[in-house]
Design a protein that fits this description.
The complex is a heterodimer of chains A (about 160) and B (about 110). Chain A is mainly α. Chain A contains six helices and no strands. The chains are: A mainly alpha (about 160), B mainly alpha (about 110).
Chain lengths: ~160, ~110
């Protein structure tokens, strides 16, 4: 077994195991900490995919933004779940749905003619091409600008929803 | 140095597994914050698929990553708005349990 496959399996087990701990956890704060571990595992998978830029975004945006925001929300809504109420639905029916969905997806994936090796890279810096494509009117300029307007709207809307009243 | 020896299907199966963990979390939990975290896991799995496709299927490695960056921006907006809604609901209802929030129930 090549060393890259061993590294993939180890990193994938970290990401997946941490994600399982997130959804199984009974304490929300522990779940948030495991969520950070899962994000780290996915960032390591991006490094295996030779995308250090995406790994950096993953660390900045998800761990620096989403995970910290989640921890703050947990602290603000302290005691939001009454301890006498069950915090989960019936886990078995949910597990059946999730496992069935996973089985269908794996069945579809193994039927597809997918490449075993990466596509040979064209000449040129990958990040440079990505940045040029994002601001190219022939490329992804429109979704880029739409998403920036959406972020502004969401910023204002979140401030409005979360304000003290 | 190129990292070789890992088929694309491994990444897709890892992404599918992460997505299904997120689906389980959305279905099984009653805490709104846990549901938001499960949705974040699902979005992460989707972006993992996009980045894997960008590396394996296209020589320029641009399209999948451009999609991934836009999904990232959407995910950040979703997390911020969702958590703002949770804080707003907590201020009025003093709960984050989904079955106790019946403000819009007739």
């Amino acid at each position: 077994m090549p060393v890259s496959q061993v590294v993939f399996l180890a990193v994938g087990a970290l990401a997946l195991g941490a994600a399982v701990r997130v959804v199984m956890s009974h304490r929300v704060f522990h779940a948030a900490l495991w969520l950070i571990g899962s994000f780290f595992g996915v960032a390591a998978l991006y490094m295996l995919l030779e995308s250090p830029f995406m790994a950096g975004i993953q660390l900045f945006l998800y761990i620096g933004g989403v995970a910290v925001l989640t921890v703050i929300a947990i602290m603000v809504t302290k005691g939001g779940m009454r301890p006498d109420r069950r915090s989960t639905n019936d886990p078995w029916s949910s597990a059946v749905v999730a496992v069935a969905l996973f089985a269908v997806m794996v069945w579809m994936i193994i039927q597809l003619p997918l490449p075993a090796e990466p596509a040979s890279q064209v000449h040129g810096e990958s990040l440079h091409l990505l940045g040029a494509a994002l601001v190219d009117p022939e490329g992804y300029l429109l979704p880029f600008e739409v998403v920036s307007v959406m972020l502004l709207i969401v910023l204002i809307g979140s401030l409005y929803l979360g304000r003290e009243r | 140095m190129a990292i070789t020896g890992i088929p694309l299907s491994w990444y897709l199966i890892a992404g599918a597994a992460l997505f299904c963990v997120g689906v389980y979390g959305v279905l099984a939990n009653r805490n709104l914050i846990m549901i938001i975290m499960s949705i974040e896991i699902m979005l992460n799995a989707v972006v993992l698929n996009l980045v894997a496709f960008a590396r394996y299927m296209e020589p320029a490695r641009v399209t999948g990553k451009a999609f991934a960056i836009i999904v990232y921006a959407t995910a950040a907006a979703e997390a911020a708005l969702g958590l703002a809604l949770i804080i707003s609901v907590w201020r009025t209802e003093n709960t984050v349990a989904v079955e106790e929030i019946d403000l819009l129930q007739g």
